[in-house]
C-alpha cells in the first residue's frame, strides 16, 4: 500500500501492474527528453544574439520537427495499446467473484462456492485493533488465491461506484444495470487495500476494499470462508 511521502507508484502485485509501471517509466523518460530539448531551445533563444537568415525558410528543419513528434507518439502508442489489450483478456479464470457496490459498502459473491455472499463494511474507529488501518480496514475481507487467474464481475445497485486496487492495476466502474468484468493474477501473498474511486455520495470516502491473498493450497482448505 502507499506510504507517507511516496513519490512513485505502489509495488506491483500482478503482471498487469508490472507492465503499467514499465510503461509509466518509458513515457516519463520521453517526457523528460522533450522538456529538456524545449528548455534548451528556449535558453539558446533568450541568450544568443546570433541570427541566421536561412532559418526563415528551412524546409528540412520543418520536415524534421513534423516527423519527429509522430515517431514519438508511435513509440508511446504501441506499448500502450499492448497493455490495453492485455487488460481485456479473459483466459479460463479459476475463480469468479461478483462485487456489488452499494451506498456505502460492498457485497461479494463467490459464485463457484455455493453462492457464498457477504457484505464488507468499513471498520469504525472504535472497532479497530492494533495494526489496523483507519478508513481502510473492513469487517469481512475478500480472500483469494495467488498465482491463479481471478475474474471479477462488478456492478452497482444504486449509483456509480468504482472498484479499484492500485497495487493490482485494477480500476473498473460499477454501473447500475450493467455487469463489467476484469481479471487479474496475483503473484505474491499479502493484504492489499483499495477504495471506491468514483464520487458516489456523502460517504464516498468510507467504502474501502481489502483483498487478502493467500497460497492456493491454504485457500482450498475452506476455513477462510468462515465469516
TrEMBL record:
<keyword id="KW-0496">Mitochondrion</keyword>
<dbReference type="Pfam" id="PF02790">
    <property type="entry name" value="COX2_TM"/>
</dbReference>
<comment type="function">
    <text>Component of the cytochrome c oxidase, the last enzyme in the mitochondrial electron transport chain which drives oxidative phosphorylation. The respiratory chain contains 3 multisubunit complexes succinate dehydrogenase (complex II, CII), ubiquinol-cytochrome c oxidoreductase (cytochrome b-c1 complex, complex III, CIII) and cytochrome c oxidase (complex IV, CIV), that cooperate to transfer electrons derived from NADH and succinate to molecular oxygen, creating an electrochemical gradient over the inner membrane that drives transmembrane transport and the ATP synthase.</text>
</comment>
<dbReference type="InterPro" id="IPR036257">
    <property type="entry name" value="Cyt_c_oxidase_su2_TM_sf"/>
</dbReference>
<dbReference type="InterPro" id="IPR034210">
    <property type="entry name" value="CcO_II_C"/>
</dbReference>
<keyword id="KW-0479">Metal-binding</keyword>
<feature type="transmembrane region" description="Helical">
    <location>
        <begin position="66"/>
        <end position="85"/>
    </location>
</feature>
<dbReference type="GO" id="GO:0005743">
    <property type="term" value="C:mitochondrial inner membrane"/>
</dbReference>
<keyword id="KW-0472">Membrane</keyword>
<dbReference type="GO" id="GO:0005507">
    <property type="term" value="F:copper ion binding"/>
</dbReference>
<dbReference type="InterPro" id="IPR011759">
    <property type="entry name" value="Cyt_c_oxidase_su2_TM_dom"/>
</dbReference>
<dbReference type="InterPro" id="IPR008972">
    <property type="entry name" value="Cupredoxin"/>
</dbReference>
<dbReference type="GO" id="GO:0004129">
    <property type="term" value="F:cytochrome-c oxidase activity"/>
</dbReference>
<keyword id="KW-0186">Copper</keyword>
<feature type="domain" description="Cytochrome oxidase subunit II copper A binding">
    <location>
        <begin position="92"/>
        <end position="225"/>
    </location>
</feature>
<keyword id="KW-0812">Transmembrane</keyword>
<dbReference type="InterPro" id="IPR001505">
    <property type="entry name" value="Copper_CuA"/>
</dbReference>
<keyword id="KW-0813">Transport</keyword>
<feature type="domain" description="Cytochrome oxidase subunit II transmembrane region profile">
    <location>
        <begin position="1"/>
        <end position="91"/>
    </location>
</feature>
<protein>
    <recommendedName>
        <fullName>Cytochrome c oxidase subunit 2</fullName>
    </recommendedName>
</protein>
<keyword id="KW-1278">Translocase</keyword>
<dbReference type="InterPro" id="IPR014222">
    <property type="entry name" value="Cyt_c_oxidase_su2"/>
</dbReference>
<dbReference type="GO" id="GO:0016491">
    <property type="term" value="F:oxidoreductase activity"/>
</dbReference>
<dbReference type="InterPro" id="IPR002429">
    <property type="entry name" value="CcO_II-like_C"/>
</dbReference>
<dbReference type="InterPro" id="IPR045187">
    <property type="entry name" value="CcO_II"/>
</dbReference>
<dbReference type="GO" id="GO:0022900">
    <property type="term" value="P:electron transport chain"/>
</dbReference>
<comment type="similarity">
    <text>Belongs to the cytochrome c oxidase subunit 2 family.</text>
</comment>
<keyword id="KW-1133">Transmembrane helix</keyword>
<keyword id="KW-0249">Electron transport</keyword>
<keyword id="KW-0460">Magnesium</keyword>
<dbReference type="Pfam" id="PF00116">
    <property type="entry name" value="COX2"/>
</dbReference>
<keyword id="KW-0679">Respiratory chain</keyword>
<feature type="transmembrane region" description="Helical">
    <location>
        <begin position="27"/>
        <end position="46"/>
    </location>
</feature>
<keyword id="KW-0999">Mitochondrion inner membrane</keyword>
Amino acid at each position: 500500500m502507499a506510504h507517507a511521502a511516496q513519490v512513485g507508484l505502489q509495488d506491483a502485485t500482478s503482471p498487469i501492474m508490472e507492465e503499467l509501471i514499465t510503461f509509466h517509466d518509458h513515457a516519463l523518460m520521453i517526457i523528460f527528453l522533450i522538456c529538456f530539448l524545449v528548455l534548451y531551445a528556449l535558453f539558446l533563444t533568450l541568450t544568443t544574439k546570433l541570427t541566421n537568415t536561412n532559418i526563415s525558410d528551412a524546409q528540412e528543419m520543418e520536415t524534421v520537427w513534423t516527423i519527429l513528434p509522430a515517431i514519438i507518439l508511435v513509440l508511446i502508442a504501441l506499448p500502450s495499446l499492448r497493455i490495453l489489450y492485455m487488460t481485456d483478456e479473459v483466459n479460463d479464470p479459476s475463480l469468479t467473484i461478483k462485487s456489488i457496490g452499494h451506498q456505502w459498502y460492498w457485497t461479494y459473491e463467490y459464485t463457484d462456492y455455493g453462492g457464498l455472499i457477504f457484505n464488507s463494511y468499513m471498520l469504525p474507529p472504535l472497532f479497530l485493533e492494533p495494526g489496523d488501518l483507519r478508513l481502510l480496514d473492513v469487517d469481512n475481507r475478500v480472500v483469494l488465491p495467488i498465482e491463479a487467474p481471478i475474474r471479477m464481475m462488478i456492478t452497482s445497485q444504486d449509483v456509480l461506484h468504482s472498484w479499484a486496487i492500485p497495487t493490482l492495476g485494477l480500476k473498473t466502474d460499477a454501473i447500475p444495470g450493467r455487469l463489467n468484468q476484469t481479471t487479474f493474477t496475483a503473484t505474491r501473498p499479502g493484504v492489499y487495500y483499495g477504495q471506491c474511486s468514483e464520487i458516489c455520495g456523502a460517504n464516498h470516502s468510507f467504502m474501502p476494499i481489502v483483498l487478502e491473498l493467500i497460497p492456493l493450497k491454504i485457500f482450498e482448505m475452506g476455513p477462510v470462508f468462515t465469516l
